[in-house]
Queue: 2 jobs
Job 1
Amino acid sequence: MYSDEDLASAVKAGVLSEASAAAFRQHVDELRQSSVADEEHFRFLTGFNDVFVVIACILLLVSVNWIGATVAFWFGAFLQGASAWGLAEYFARVRRMALPSIVLLLAFVGGVVFGCVMLAKSVGFSQQVSVGLGCAMGGAAAWLHWLRFNVPITVAAGMAVLVFAVVALFSSIFPTAKDWRGLMVFLGGVMVFIIGMRWDASDTRRQTRRSDVAFWLHLVAAPLLVHPVFLLLGAFDQGMGLSTVLVIIVLYASIALLSISIDRRAMMVSALAYVLYAFNTLLQEYGVVSLSFAFAALTIGGALLLMSAFWHTCRAYVVGFYPDRVREYLPPLQSS
């Protein structure tokens, strides 16, 4: 799989001319439009060697963390982060291996966050303040990692830890304002979603790495948006009634409509657990105990498969109602 950056590098090296690269991009674009309509493409595996390298990296990073933790837990975490950065210099920057780059980014940011949390707690900060400071430092670490390696998931990881940093620091300042935490998480999800849409709008045909960045941002925004709303509706309450289930279904339908419009399925997947639980609880209350989850999964799974089969048709119908000014920022409708 050739990325846009690979083509740009070939042009710079004189292997391809600008005209040849442009013609190749146009050919690939036409081929995708004629073969697969309305699909989400993002780089995850470049080959089985990615899996092999990831297993080796995990073994090395766990061992380094374990050995460093004999000195102090925070030292082991920082050692893990430093090792992940060093490995990324080759596997992410030189080899551009997709899955190892993702794992090493998570290991680096996770090591910085956990190390800062443990270090802050060791010097006397409270749990909430330590988590807030650790997540804030994790956001800064993600930004530095992005400047160096440009791994698409980095922006989403940085936004996620920054949202948690704000929530944790707010909770430490106002410990009695527990009801506001859900609202802050939701607002954080809105912010991440808007940023994801800006990345999407910059590459509506999804030909460059910007589309991959948008994919991960939407994947992070989805649970931040969905979880507080479904929690407020009592999606996990045992005494959930029929009215609550109907509201959850309507909300999920709205999420599906938004997902179809922007051609992103992440929000539907994120809300799936809540809908399954709601259906399962409803069936149990009406006497279907032993097979309640099976019937719920059968109904929702069948509906999702049907939607997947007619995704292009649904998009054409839904997007057709939008004005041209809105459609300019959405992925174009592709002929099947």
Job 2
Amino acid sequence: MANHDSASDSQTTRPAIPRLAILGTGNIGRALACGLVASGRYAASDVILTRRNVDRLADLADQGFTVLDDNRQATRQASTVVVAVEPLQLNGVLREIREDLDPEVHVVLSVVSGASIAAMQAQIDKAIPVARAMPNTAVALRQSMTCLAARPGDDRALGRAREVFDQVGMTVAIDEEKMVPATALCACGLAFFLRSVRAASQGGIEIGFHPEDALTMAAQTALGAAALVLDRGRHPEREIDAVTTPRGCTIAGLNEMEHQGFSSAMIKGIVTSAIKADSLYTRDD
């Protein structure tokens, strides 16, 4: 498998950008890699991917990504290091690469749930800029909601995080103490909304639509609902008021869902996920 240590001649018209390594290319790492290339800001050769079993990344290697099973080698070849491993693997990975991190060169971006910047910097034991990011797998389509956090005044870390994640959706900088709630609302939340789409499609089947048609109709309706909120900047209840009439079918359906606990279930699910996310990472092995 060939490594790509420099940009190809075909990329000479593209602005120079730091190479980026994604350590731990599971679902979120793979989605991020694909989204960055889809943005046009990165070429596949700008992105280095690691995984212990590199055979699982063969399709990405065929697309031009550099694929390695060596985190240290990937770190040496990049200046932006995105750590995308499981929380229980984080300490080991940070200790593994710390000798290869250069404070003048590297910025570390973590998408690991629950691990604070202070805890990561303690493992690195160097003055490396570190930022946290909480995206979701919609990065692959450049439609993620990604929350970012860095230490106050660390413009280098936050700026690099924006450079990367602005390419794959909407970003918002928040206080680090809000990163665990952001995990529940934005990362876990993607699954919650997908479950809502599935439920709507099942309702569509029950009232007579074929499964494929019901799923398309439910998904597009959900997309339209989200677009109304984002584009108009109005509270969802204002948009709901616009489609409900006295004694109408919409308000009848809404009231039945509320009687069955729809809003309460969503709220409880988000709170439960936040509690769980806060316990995933343990600073000491």
